[in-house]
Structure formats: C-alpha cells, structure tokens
Amino acid sequence: MNQTEKKKKAILEVTFQLLNDKEIKDITIDEIAANAVVSKVTLFKYFKNKNHLMNIVIVKAFEHMAEDINEIIGSELDFESTYQAITQMKLKQLEHYSPTFSENLMTQYTMSPDFFDADTIKLQMQVYEELFKKGQLEGKIAPTYSFDDFMFIMNIFIEGMKGLTADTLFKRTDLISRYFLQGFK
Known about the structure:
There is one protein chain. Helices cover 76% and strands 0% of the residues. By secondary structure, the protein is mainly α. The longest helix is centred in the first third of the chain and has 24 residues, at 50-73.
C-alpha cells in the first residue's frame, strides 16, 4: 500500500470511529486530520469537504450491505421471505454499529442531497428491480402494478421513514414490512 492509500485509509478509519462515537455536527475536520495524523490540506486533497467524507464512510457501510442483499435476492427464498430477510439483514448489520452511527446514518441520509452517488443509486435500483420481478413472478405483486408503481410506493415509504429515529424504525420494522407487503397483493 502506497502513502496515498495509507493516508486515505487512515482518514476513513478515523472518520468511521468518530461516526460511531459522536454526532456529525460535533465532528470537526481538525479532529479527523489530527487523529489520522494528516494535514487538513491532505484531507481536502482526497475529500471535497466534511459532508463528502461523511458520505463516503457511510456509503462504504452500505456497500457491505449491498453484497449481502444481492446474495439474498439470488437465493431460493420466495418474495415475502426475501423482503423480510433483506429487512432483517439490514437491521442486524446496523446493530453492529453504535446507536450514534445509526443516528448519524439517518441524519446524513435525510440532510445530504448528495448522499448517494450515481453508482450507488444504480445498484439500489437493480436490487429493487430484482425484488419487483420476483414478487410479480410469484404473484405477490399484482400484474396491474408496474415497476414505476413499485418504486413510487417504495419512495413514499423511504421518504416517510426519513423523519423517524433509527430506534423507532428498529422497533416497528415488522409492522412496516407487513403493511408494505400486503399492499401489493
């Protein structure tokens, strides 16, 4: 690993640790640079701003999730079991992070317009499309619904959930899942 990669890795690791310990608003660029043992100039050489850095660290957590989601979608589970397995997997992965990290994730997701880059959005859309196809193939999503209809409802759910705390979402996931799944029959 060259010096550039080592510095980037140190910055990302320090930022991840800080996201587990403190609210985003309480994390400073000076603190990240000092803990990563790099200058602020070096930090800004690799990351546009604090928001960009936070997004990258959080998106990396999502990338690990995406790998597991793709495995679940490709499994032999039926549509409902697939949806529930994805939801449970997301919750279990989020439990590996501190409550502070989960709250930071939700905050960044709701407040940052550039949270997801184009590649992340494309990957997410492919996951939803595969889930939609599986649901229609099994008759769990009525043929009268198009993929656009499915995504419209998904976006209503996603946008509505942005205003909730992570703790509330964790406690009510089963209710949200049942309601969502029943609505497409």
